[in-house]
Amino acid sequence: DAGVTQSPTHLIKTRGQQVTLRCSPKSGHDTVSWYQQALGQGPQFIFQYYEEEERQRGNFPDRFSGHQFPNYSSELNVNALLLGDSALYLCASSAPGQGGNEQFFGPGTRLTVL
Amino acid sequence: GNSVTQMEGPVTLSEEAFLTINCTYTATGYPSLFWYVQYPGEGLQLLLKATKADDKGSNKGFEATYRKETTSFHLEKGSVQVSDSAVYFCALSDKNTGKLIFGQGTTLQVKP
Question: Which residues of A touch B51 (CB under 8 A)?
Fold first, then answer.
């Protein structure tokens, strides 16, 4: 079992650019959630995808958007990057109702905005 | 709204010392509770969980008990090792939404 995988590992962008991050969930999981973790902080929920639709959304602007594909993999897109978007972006997968909504995390993508 | 509060770190202990990291929560309903651990440069790993009041989660010598009366989920370990040095996050999950809400994290440093 490969677990949750994310790509790329690191990314450097400049302000105003756009970025796409990718995530493949753990085998058997159909729900993907994205979190932003700023340095020294706990992860903050961005949104969750299930059955190719956004099911839940946190307090993030519309510059943050996502997509889920039929194979359950997911993308996170961020437009018009700001310096404050620099963070570790974590993807987590789960199977609803199982394990008390336990989520399994990938290693993250470290985004640096210059 | 739902929230999680952890004791501030860093926590510095000698090897074989007893560890307690406090965690309290505010939530409507009956959330599931989790402890995650993050080693330097890595993502989050689930350490233990509890899904209902009075449940005790345990793993790798760590334990935490879901206390509804005190809305707490304190993490304990009887004898820490240098390899336990990491950042520990307490989190709750709303059973309806599945969204995780994290505390700010507590850094643990164990010295030989």
Answer: 99-100
